[in-house]
Amino acid sequence: MPKLPVLSGKELIKLLERIGFITVRVNGSHHRMKSDDGRVTTVPVHGNDDLPVGLLRKIIREDLQLSLEAFVDLYNQFRG
Fold it and tell me: Residue 65 belongs to a domain with what CATH number?
């Protein structure tokens, strides 16, 4: 199993925008994002604080419907 990268909420939002998600609304520090195919997720942005690993894993598996390996590959392409 690949090691998950450590991401802040801002970094995750940039990555999601690159793969086709748009910000639908912002309620306080929570950004609601949606893709054209109907997937929806909420990303908390608390300054430059890192996202907890469990929350990142939940977003990847349940909201984005990706495997951890596919997400790590996407992240590596995003980082260059």
Answer: 3.30.920.30
Q: What is the dihedral of CA 74, 47, 21, 56, to 10 degrees?
A: 50
Q: Residue 20's closest CA among 30, 31, 34? A: 34
| pTM, two decimal places | 0.93
Query: Looking at the DSSP assignment, which residues form a beta bridge with residue 61?
Result: none
Which tokens hold the place of 7?
């991401």
pLDDT at residue 37, rounded to an integer: 95
User: Is pLDDT at 80 greater than 90 in this prediction?
Assistant: no
Residue with tokens 């195919």: 37
Name the domain count of the chain.
Answer: 1
Task: Please say whether the beta carbons of 9 and 43 come within 8 A.
Answer: yes
| Boundaries of domain holding 64 | 9-79
pLDDT digits (tens, 9 = 90+) for 18-58: 999 999 999 999 999 999 999 999 999 999 999 999 999 99
